[in-house]
Design goal:
By secondary structure, this protein is an alpha/beta fold. Helix content is 25%, strand content 17%.
Length: 729
């Protein structure tokens, strides 16, 4: 007995917990993914089970994680707890989460990190701890057991110290992000224990420890990104006492601050990192005029960097910036150069001529104009250049632009889109090697023989073109999107065309001649673009047919009935099963057909309401609240009545009003208690005559005794006695 009682208590407790979980977080019901974010929760809800694989509790008010909170969630793969108020975690809170792969505790109130928390998270790959209140990582490593860790994000504005041994146990990280914006103490060797890091981001305002961190990362990091730093004039070598080969290949400065002095010194120091191939500066500020120590830079030897990217760099008083004379020897090996959104208006001719190895040049979104372009692309400049991007500048003359660009003997890819040329000449000079030309969004009204016949790819999208009839025998790809074309380009002038984009034009029809002599391999035109009026007509006809079919099906299968039934059921479900005894107003609610009203109102009502003691009956004609929806009237009347009395007849079965009245009472009445229903058969009626959808009523008719109104007067007294007895029961 006690064993049964114990099992019952456990099952009852589990059921109670599951109900509490469903109430606290409705999405957890019968789902592997449990989204409880932004629910205003003060604690982790009880009832979490092994079926849950992802639990999102972010953006709540949880302050503590207790031992038992996650004990049953043994199959959890992702646990999101960011943006709460967590300040306390019991040491064994995560002990059962051996399958957990992602844990996010960022933006909470943790004052320290305990190694015990993560000791059993053998499968953990992603750990986010940034935005808390801890000032260090403790005396040892909190991550020593996390052998599968791939990404780690930690740090906060209070984070001020890193010690040796803090990262022991971590051998490989795909990404490491440290918010050390206020880091002031760094023990040499703290990061050296990590053998390999693909990408490391560190927010670091204290420039004095920059060199120490770089020295520790030379052999482990492939891409180092430093944010918010104000670079100091560093005297010590970055590779001091370090042995080659190094691993670091890419260095990015984001939101950094430079001066002429720090730039000069940094260029010299970075040359010592012989594996460094790529430099980036994004959203940085340079305070200076370009007066760099070119002598020291030249003496330090050749740079190994092959790619430089500068995006949105603000140079205060950029119009006073010098032309970097003396830097010529440092750019010979550069292969890719991007300077975008940085107010570049020219490059000195002498400097441009020394970019002897440059293959790719991107000057998009700057201030280049035609009269300065003559200096930027002078004779002998950029001798190896193959790709040039001058989009989003202030070039006005296509003829002049083409003339200057023709000085680039090896150029095959040119983007001059989003310049406001407006006009296009009949003849232009271009490099003989040019194969790709982007003239999109340049406001040209037509295409002329200015466009070179050597092209294989041409983009003239988003212009004002009304026709296209150029002879381009080598062209393979043509982009004509967002123009004013009414007909397709002829096939004969572009015999080698493989792909053409012609969306968003004014094409109405295609003629056979437009495809003469050309084999179409693949045409990506939608049916709407080809036959717009036909498609619209078909859609209208189909829509009409669908509506017609839905109406027919709804009528045949009583869809409206089921919709009303469902709504009534939902309404009833929200209310308590039965009104309290004090709210019972009637002995019976009477449901009857209007055709039977004479017998109900003049015979039955008089007999029952004038009895001693009298019965209180609820009739829809007399007792329904005017203006109240019929559904609410019916449900309220049934709930406030001790019994529900159905006066059944052929009229009742066929009556629409009675049908819906019975519908709305059907679920609530018969689901609760069959004894609450009293059936009075006013005339003989077969249960088969009752519609099949009233399955429970049909069943009651077959299984339960009902009262039949006798036509013989001597038997009617017995009928009234039986009916009164049923009402009193």
């Amino acid at each position: 007995t006690w064993g049964v009682w114990a099992i019952y208590m456990v099952l009852a407790a589990n059921l109670s917990e599951q109900q509490a979980l469903k109430q606290a977080c409705p999405s957890c019901d019968a789902s592997q993914i449990c989204n409880c974010s932004s629910m205003g929760l003060d604690f982790i809800p009880a009832g979490l089970t092994a079926k849950i694989t992802e639990l999102n509790l972010a953006h709540n008010r949880i302050k503590r994680i207790r031992s038992q909170d996650l004990q049953q969630a043994v199959n959890l793969r992702a646990l999101l707890l960011q943006s709460n108020e967590i300040s306390s975690i019991d040491e064994d809170s995560f002990q059962s989460l051996a399958k957990l792969q992602l844990l996010d505790l960022s933006n909470n109130s943790l004052g320290h990190l305990s190694p015990v928390w993560f000791g059993h998270l053998f499968s953990l790959q992603h750990l986010y701890l940034q935005g808390n209140f801890y000032s260090d990582l403790g005396e040892s490593s909190p991550f020593s057991g996390l052998r599968n860790l791939s990404s780690l994000h930690l740090g906060n504005p209070q984070f001020s110290m890193m010690r040796q041994g803090n990262f022991e146990g971590i051998e490989f990280l795909h990404k490491l992000w440290i918010d050390g914006s206020n880091l002031s103490q760094y023990e040499q060797g703290s990061l050296k224990s990590i053998k390999k890091i693909n990408h490391m981001i560190i927010n670091l305002r204290n420039g004095s420890i920059f060199s120490e961190i770089v020295r520790d990362l030379l052999h482990s990091v492939t891409w180092l990104e430093v944010r918010e730093i104000t670079l100091p004039v560093e005297k010590k070598s970055l590779v001091q006492n370090s042995t080659r080969p190094f691993r670091i290949q890419k260095l990015t400065f984001t939101d950094a601050f430079f001066t002429d002095q720090t730039i000069s010194r940094t260029i010299v120091l970075l040359k010592e990192i012989t594996t460094l191939k790529e430099l980036e500066a994004i959203n940085c500020v340079l305070q200076g005029k370009g007066i760099w120590d070119v002598e020291e830079i030249a003496k330090s030897g050749q740079s190994f960097v092959e790619s430089v990217t500068i995006i949105n760099v603000i140079i205060q008083n950029f119009h006073l910036f010098f032309d970097l004379e003396g830097m010529e020897s440092q750019i010979n090996n550069l292969k890719r150069l991007t300077i975008a959104s940085s107010n570049v208006f020219m490059v000195a001719c002498n400097l441009a001529r020394h970019f002897s190895s440059l293959l790719y040049l991107d000057f998009h979104d700057n201030l280049l104009v035609n009269n300065r372009l003559d200096e930027t692309i002078c004779e002998g400049a950029w001798p190896s250049l193959q790709t040039l991007n001058l989009s989003q500048n202030s070039l006005k003359s296509l003829k002049q632009t083409a003339k200057y660009i023709s000085r680039l003997p090896k150029l095959n890819n040119l983007d001059i889109s989003q310049n406001n040329f407006g006009e296009i000449p009949d003849v232009c000079e271009w490099p003989k090697t040019l194969k790709y030309l982007n003239l999109s969004s340049t406001q040209i009204p037509k295409v002329t023989t200015c466009i070179p016949s050597t092209l294989e790819v041409l983009d003239v999208s988003a212009n004002n073109l009304k026709e296209f009839g150029l002879q381009l025998p080598l062209l393979k790809e043509l982009y004509l999107t967002k123009n004013q074309l009414k007909t397709l380009p002829g096939a004969a002038p572009i015999p080698n065309l493989v792909a053409m984009s012609i969306r968003r034009n004014k094409l109405n029809s295609f003629s056979k001649e437009e495809f003469e002599g050309a084999q179409v391999g693949a045409v990506h035109l939608s049916l709407l673009e080809c036959h717009r009026s036909l498609v619209v007509s078909l859609i209208c006809v189909l829509l009409f047919l669908v509506i017609l079919i839905l109406v027919a099906v709804g009528y045949k299968y009583h869809v409206v009935w089921y919709l009303r039934m469902t709504w009534a059921w939902l309404q009833a479900k929200r209310k308590p099963k039965r009104a309290p005894p004090k709210d019972i107003c009637y002995d019976a609610f009477v449901s009857y057909s209007e055709n039977d009203s004479d017998w109900v109102e003049n015979t039955m009502v008089r007999e029952l309401e004038q009895a001693c003691p009298p019965f209180r009956l609820c009739l829809h004609k007399r007792d329904f609240v005017p203006g109240k929806w019929i559904v609410d009237n019916i449900i309220d009347s049934i709930e406030k009545s001790h019994k529900t009395l159905f006066v059944l007849s052929e009229h009742f079965v066929q009556s629409e009003w009675c049908k819906y009245e019975l519908d709305f009472s059907h679920f609530r009445l018969f689901d609760e208690n069959n004894d609450a229903a009293i059936l009075v058969l006013l005339e003989p009626i077969q249960s088969k005559a009752i519609p099949k959808r009233f399955c429970k009523l049909r069943k009651i008719m077959n299984t339960k005794t009902y009262l039949e109104w006798p036509l013989e007067e001597e038997q009617q007294q017995m009928f009234w006695e039986n009916l009164k007895g049923a009402l009193k029961s």
